[in-house]
């Protein structure tokens, strides 16, 4: 026994793959280990990527990228030679009549070619961006008219890419029919009909064969319907994944539209982390840098400006901001060509799918052995009986051939039952159900494995702003000229307005409105709104309020240079031609309080005069900053410096401090409870933020993250630690403040490598992409997150809410536990069905269950069992146990206890019925076989109920919360009555009296009692105390356990 167990464990090692980015070697290894013992390869591997197709698609993608790279770099390097060569042969473009009638004077092909080829000469021939805008009838200020978008899509195309047509129901029906064992049974049924008609005549001779045919048809239809419904859920999720909103100017107003609604002529606003939605031309912007690696494969950033205006769809904004004129959309872009190859080959399989493929393979081999043994025993007994009969082995009749055919069909049916083809597919079913429900709960799962892995998460590294807090920011307090004012009240604002001069207000407003990555826009309804990040929005709204109170409006100024906010420097800066400095250049600096304060040597007083920032004054400013931070306010400083000549941003000191902002970002409702839930579930929560450490500690204490024995550390200090110091420090870290994205990446890497933690990490910025990619589960924010962050994430939290992350963890645990329930149920049916058929064949010379009955049992335990058990919703009790470790066995000791206990009971009952049933219940052979079949089915029905809880005695708790479970169990019982009472001719059953029905149900229901007794037997936990480094001990098993 130990030898078999050892060999099984060695075999199952081939079925271990990482949850993220598995190697092709690991993927091929488990496919080879599965071998040929697969009933239906088309269905079994439908949700598994075709590695050969994927390899072909990758080669195609590389070829496309290589062509594009050559086109881009050769054209840039030798543009003058290309221009010279083209002077003699200019291509002529024909303007379609529909474009002419609509007022356009350039064709879609010519527009697309100019950008694709980076054709500077062609752009100059059309008088630059302004000329192109005129030819597509659009104002660079007001954008396109909303009423014209349909017409533009008709002339220039829509922003959609060619996709593979979705699979129809008939395709799934065809896949389901490719089961080799069902084909063999259908062949046997056809021969059975032929022999039956020849020996017994019409219609009696065809009943057995037709019964098998009808049952096969039923199995195929139910399987196909289940698979098709599952595909519809994935299709909806794929549609949701492709939803990207972009900001455009239309009808003179800034607004958000779907990326699929972009048309030629749209004025698109781009900023850091955005995906360029289509091909286009740069209009204006600052420090604009593009990452073209997704398109050309080149990682070198491309600077886009008036000297190089060409922008290609699918590329990412690495730095700066800009406006773009869209010139080509959809399949007329290079990205459109590339998109056709990006989705080829399917999504990577999940670790649980692979594990269950291994389990199914082992069970299949055992089942095949039992099928061969059963056939051998039946044939041996048949031949022995025939040898002793008159005529011996030389005399064969049609009935003998029918008996041998039936033996073969029974053996094939045993393989049908024994090979649990539905195990790996049950994972997909459960994941599809969980992903659909999570979508309703504002979490979009981008990768299947993430939902599964999140159930094992032992650590969550979360941002503060917008995740733990509401992200609805307002300036609560304001420090200027040595005094602090509470500006969230009307009285405080009046005091501020009275304490500062007009000169001070002008400088303040100039800095507030010009040193900003956001902008104030007027909507169609006339209301003024701020478009940008919550922090910038709070400061601009404060500026608007100052303008209203002081009747001083900020003066317009030309921006000479912009340095967008940088998460490494933690500042942003701008140089403007300042009206308050007689048009001379003036630099404004805004960012992290201590960073800006260190660069200030002067301070502006309330009268607008500049004073020296002495050490004593600097200490008072620092005290004000600390006071703000201790009240959980986010602090920012604003400063300025006049620039002598040029427009370069000063890199050193010498700035004049204007003000300190204390921004309030309240804690989200329910966050404290969510953190408490994490702790109860054995999940350690760590806050990683760029904010001041005092602000971070105040928020962390408020939401329950920072405890008495926890450590709060700043990023610079963390970076100086050596590996040994980190090993000792990291388990204690609960808050990391003033951190860089690199610090988050280092923390995640060490948590995984040093402590084998399953780490989930949140991120919203472009620089968070490495940490999101490195973590076991990357969680991007749906509202505040950039497209780059979302693309590198596994799950998108649509409402940016920490409580939603807990829902993802809960559903992840639900998937894992539901699959365990289904495996426990299916293995019990497998063991009993194999043993009953083999023992009965050995002792009686015939199988107790007919082919039709065995197919019905297979349907109960496979498709219907998966529907019932794999789609149960989670409950709060799931978050009161530690997470499953990386190396934990999927089939636990608790499951083996339940499987073995239930199997022994069912085998004992069925054995007694087969050997003594006729005498005990006064039945004939026909009634006995029907009664055994009926009892066996009801044992499975009640065991299905039993499997809802693997450790708790009360298996009825929340049973009606899953209507699917109730419906499946009810339908199974109802159809069992129909099979026995109405379809006896086809199913080989006879009528049972009410007494026998009652006995069948009672015998089956004893499974519930047996289950309760088994759950009182203690089982040693396989978890080691060292596995739980967060101080959360495993919850004991037993009848009161979850």
UniProtKB/TrEMBL annotation:
Catalytic activity, reaction form: Ca(2+)(in) + ATP + H2O = Ca(2+)(out) + ADP + phosphate + H(+)
Domain Cation-transporting P-type ATPase C-terminal: 847-1016
Annotated P-type ATPase A domain residues: 243-341
Positions of region (Disordered): 1021-1042
Principal location: membrane
Keyword annotations from UniProtKB, A to Z: ATP-binding, Calcium, Calcium transport, Calmodulin-binding, Ion transport, Magnesium, Membrane, Metal-binding, Nucleotide-binding, Translocase, Transmembrane, Transmembrane helix, Transport
EC identifiers of the protein: 7.2.2.10
Residues in Cation-transporting P-type ATPase N-terminal domain copies: 128-192
Localization per record: Membrane
Membrane-crossing segments per the record: 180-199, 205-225, 362-384, 404-434, 822-843, 855-873, 955-984, 996-1014
Membrane topology, as annotated: Multi-pass membrane protein
Root EC class: translocase
This protein's GO CC annotations: plasma membrane
Residue ranges constituting the Calcium-transporting P-type ATPase N-terminal autoinhibitory domain according to the UniProt record: 13-56
A GO molecular-function annotation: calmodulin binding
Summary of the function given for this chain in its UniProt record: Catalyzes the hydrolysis of ATP coupled with the transport of calcium.
Database matches in PANTHER family: CALCIUM-TRANSPORTING ATPASE 1, PLASMA MEMBRANE-TYPE, CATION TRANSPORTING ATPASE
Similarity comment: Belongs to the cation transport ATPase (P-type) (TC 3.A.3) family. Type IIB subfamily.
Name listed for the protein in its UniProt record: Calcium-transporting ATPase
Lineage, highest ranks first: Eukaryota, Viridiplantae, Streptophyta, Embryophyta, Tracheophyta
